[in-house]
Amino acid sequence: MAIIKWDPFGDIATLQDRINKLFEDSFPQQLADGETLPSCAWTPHTDIYENDSGFFVAVDLPGVKKEDVTVEVKNNVMTISGKRSEDPECQTTNYYRRERICGKFYRTFSLHAMIAPADIKATFKNGVLIIEMPRPAADPPRQISVDIE
Prior knowledge:
The chain has 149 residues and is α+β, with helices and mostly antiparallel strands. The protein has one helix at 8-26; strands spanning 46-51, 54-60, 69-74, 77-84, 103-110, 121-125, 128-134. Helices cover 13% and strands 32% of the residues. Belongs to the small heat shock protein (HSP20) family.
């Protein structure tokens, strides 16, 4: 048996994570329009960034099948949801340690006003969902004559 050095602060961080999860699960989250978000088993790690062409959302979804992921946009809120299915073999296995979580996930993000919702594209490759939100084409500047009375 290997000897593992005890880290007194490691337990505090774990306790804080559990308390945060308890509060999140106890009080249902609500969207701006009053709709309540469903509870979920886990929250995928997400990066949001932009470049000259628009905004991007990268979501780590290892072990999730493409057909188990949904991306929806409603009232300027993007919702990413789905599930990671448990391997049937896992149900009969005696674990010494289990950290990977299966079940439903759910993330919501408010969209920037300068996004064209109809042009949003998503790709799923190697367990990473990339959502591309291009900026709408800018109207060319116009000169307007104003009559002065």
